Amino acid sequence: MKSAQYKFFVPTKLLFGAGCSNDVGKWLKDLGSSKILLVTDAGLKNIGVAGRIENRIRNEDLTVVTYSDVKENPTVENVHEGRDLIKKENIDAVVALGGGSSMDAAKAMGILSAHDGSIVEYELGLKPFVRNGPPLIAIPTTSGTGSEATMGAVITDPTTHRKFDVVDPMMAPRLSLVDPLLTVSLPAALTGATGMDALTHAIEGYTATLASPLTDALHLKAIELIGKNLVKAYTDGNNKEARTNIMMASLIAGIGFPNSGLGAVHGLSLPLGGRFNIPHGIANAIILPHVMNFNLSSCPNKFSDIAQALDGKNKNPEQSVEAVLKLRKELSIPVLRSYDIQLKDLPLLAKDALGRNSNCVTNPKVVTEVNAIEIYRSALAEK
Question: Taken in order 97, 98, 100, 106, is the CA torsion positive or negative?
Answer without folding.
Answer: negative
